[in-house]
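Input chain follows. Return structure tokens only.
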Amino acid sequence: MSHAQVSTTPPHIVVVGGGAGGLELVTRLGRHLGRKNKARITLIDANMTHIWKPLLHEVAAGSLNSTEDELNYVAQAKWNHFHFQLGRMCGLDRENRRIQLQAIADEQGVELIPARSIDYDYLVIAVGSTTNDFNTPGASEHCLFLDTRAQAERFHRRLLNQYMKAHAQGADMAPEKINLAIIGAGATGVELAAELHHAARLLRTYGMAGMTPEDLNIHLIEASERVLPALPERISGPVTKVLNDLGVRIITGSPVAEITADTLILKNGERIPASLKVWAAGIRAPAFLADTGLSINRIQQIKVQRTLQSLDDPRIFAFGDCAACPLDDSGERMAPPRAQVAHQQASLLFKNFKRLFANKPLQAFEYRDYGSLISLSSFSAVGNLMGNLTGSVMLEGKLARMFYVSLYRLHQIALYGLPRTLLLLLSDQFGRSTEPRLKLH
């Protein structure tokens, strides 16, 4: 007696966004569910490669060569039993469980991949955030942003072009040649200011005549009363001292009112000359989320339950910077837009998908704040570590720098595993001895 075999198709989990959280999630889902054919996992991203977003300020300054630290999504998918689709989400059809992707064109505008749709059983939106310029007049026209690798590389080219111009003119160039303004003294703005000063010193060692580190005038503008307003004051104090020692001019307590081609105009009327301007203040979720039909807040984040399910559809999840996730049942406190939040939420989602397929109730997100670390390039690092055993421990200098670097290594371990991460660490050490310490092109 023969029995007909019943074919069952595993559920399709589609994750949109290959940032740190999204990539960690699909990697773990692929290793545990995709490999065993318990689910089909697809990652969708508008780029072919991934770079850890907290490193973009180093790409902008030229102290990190992005081509050496990038991860290829196609290769990662092959190694970890998930699929990758190049595309940018532009629409959502919840009734038919389908997302729409934009057409993809080359540099000349020739269409390479037509607009298409992808079906899902479960959808995870992890598209991160973009910079919020608060509709400040002139910001979008005259400022550079650091949301993507391409934007960071564009800033680096602009900066290097100004240095090359000064180098070509040599000592005949007048002092105070480059005026650079960074709007926003959060982690990105502070770290960029220190990294740029470090880059200026390195350029001098490579024989860039006509320029000294003192000729790079860096203005750091913050609307709040101190730098790093979202972090404890005991962290912002030492950071302010280091920046002052480096010659960074810190301006607090007055927001930017208008930006022109070569000037910042503050609300208090002060005018700051700036040939290069970087906007690093505030975030908002990508604009297309407003057209998905999902509930969003004033900065376009998707409103989710503590299980990370959207309020409107239990089959749609969102996490990271693009999600508004309550920290408790009252809904009054929301998870901050930080890398450690996205990492913890990716871990929870991985566990919840396993529970979902085992018909177990989903767990709620519990945020554990492990502290904050701010890198000041080679000059210092400042931060605090928080834990159940240690409480809150203040760190400065080389020890803080070591912990800061370890955060990236932990991200690599989540993606590559420990053995390959150790090989990458050795490769980085050998590479530094044979290559310039600054990207000069």
